[in-house]
Structures are given as C-alpha cells and as structure tokens.
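fyi for ur records
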Amino acid sequence: MNANTMHLREINIQSIRRVLRCSETVSKMSLATRTGLSIATCGNVLQEMLRTGEIQEACPGESTGGRPSRQFQYNHDYAYYAAVYLRKEGSKNILYSSVANLAGHPVMTSSTEHFDIGMGDVEEILMHYCRKFPLVRSVALGIPGVVRQGTIGICDFPRLAGIPLVSHLEKQLDCPVIAENDVNLSALGNHFGRDQCQDENSVCLYYPRGGKPGAGIIVGKRLVRGYSHFAGEVSFLPQSESLEETSLQKKNVFIDAVSNTVQSLVSIINPQNIRLIGLDFTENILRRIQEKLRKEIPQEHLPMMHFDTDLHESLIEGLHHLAVDEISSGVRLINTKQEYRS
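which gave:
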C-alpha cells in the first residue's frame, strides 16, 4: 500500500469514526450518506473496526419490509486515557488526575494536595494508572506555565521549569504524552467541548486567587500560542497590576486590572466571546467590568462576557479533546494537531 493510499484510507477511517462517536447506532447505508463515502468503503472500514473491537454490532434496525439493516455502535471503552493537571490556588498545590474512557467518563479520579509538585509526583501517579489500566493509550497534561516542544518553561511550580517532561514521560510510560498550558486547555475545552462554542474568536481569562492571570486565545477556531508559546501570558502586560494579594477586599484594584486586560485583548484580538474564570468573579464584578468597558470601547466591538468561578470543567474538556485526538490519530494527510502541539 503506497503512502497516498494510506493517507486516503486514514482520512476515510477518521470520517467514519467521527460519525460513529456522535451517534447511538448507525447503519452502513447511513454512514455512506453522512460521510459521502461508498457503501463498499464503509463496509470495509466497519469490518476492520469490528475486528479490533473499536465498534460493536448493535440490535438490528426496524424492518421496512425487507431484511433489517445491521446497526453499529462505537465502543467508548475500546481505550482509556489518563489526564493530569497541576494547580496552585492560594496556598494549595493540587495535583488532579483521572483515567477516563473515550467518551470522557472517568473510571478513576484523584485530587491530592502537596507541599510542592515535581516531575516525580506526576510520574508516580501516571505509572500507577498505566499499570492498573493497560487500556490507557495516551496521556494529557495541563501545566500552569509555558510549554514548548514538550519542555516546561516558566511555571508556577519551579521544580518543573526547564524539564523535558514529555520526552521523559513517554520513555517511562511507553505511550504518547501531550502537555499544554492549563488556560489554553480551558480555552480548547470551552471551544471544542460538549457544548461547543461556535465563535471564530474567543478568550478564556483566568485569575487564580493569589496567582498571576493567564489567557487562552482562540482565533479563527485555532489556538494561538505565539512563536515561543508565550501568547496569553497577560501578567506581563505593561498596565497589569500585581494581583498576588488581591482579594474581594481589594475589589476596585481587581476590577481595574481585569478591565485593563480585557480592553487590551479586545483591541488586539477582537474576540466574540470572553469567559472570565476565577474564585473572585461575581455577577456584580462582571457588571462593573462591563460598565468600565462600555466607556472605553464602542458598543459594536464589545464581546459577550461570562464568568465561571472554576476552570476545572473546561480544563478537563480540553484534556479530553487532546487525549482522544491523540488516540484516534494515525497517518494524516494534514497534521491537524499543529493547532494544539508542536
């Protein structure tokens, strides 16, 4: 089989896989209609996926007078992935981890507090998961810092800075590992998750209590990282206030700092949607930020704004998106992962 034939075959498999994953059951004829592929091609791919266990045969469909059509359903327990993210929130250093199936349903979760977090802590939990769950086929990591080509740069956990975390873990675990900035993951989760934001351009802006803010930026439905993966490090904006001691008692300082950052993002990126994330956000604070922005920016250029007190759900969605993409990827005509990793 030559390279072009392999590429085309993988594209066909990916197209069929996408339909199967978002359907309860599907017939060969329905697959052909929804993918634009021939019935013969769909049949060949379905037989291969049945052989590997990636799909299962479901109960036949209702008869319309002839023989009932064979129905197929995706086996979301065909493989698992492990997800880990590190978080500094006030005085707490948290290592969250989970193992989930391809639908994102967890089979095990853990959240532990540490005095500090280093590579050994991450490696230990992942080694445990890979031994306990042989079906783990990929690992996704969320890092509160800059991640470039698998190496950690500036980071909330200094023991990880400068470490080629991805290559080290891949050798130890013998499976693909993807690492990404935590707020970038939150932006991906918000955009590509189960609720799927349809905006071309959107921003997640995270303000951890006692820490420095960060942004995850989507432009043209692609994650923006910048040439050195420094995009989104909004704490380095010249007008940014130090928020390490900011609390609700210093509400005005907090509102001014967030408003200034949002104003910069709107004037440069012009997003349709901005999601503010942090324990200090309330309806009243959001309203005051919007009032300040209306005085500085013409109404027609203002984004829709929402807030969440926690980034956990969107971050988990982002980890799920990357991990499942890694498991399902094979030879590709176009490297679609260039949006997420390098």
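Residues 330-342 have pLDDT under 50 and may be disordered. thats all i got for now
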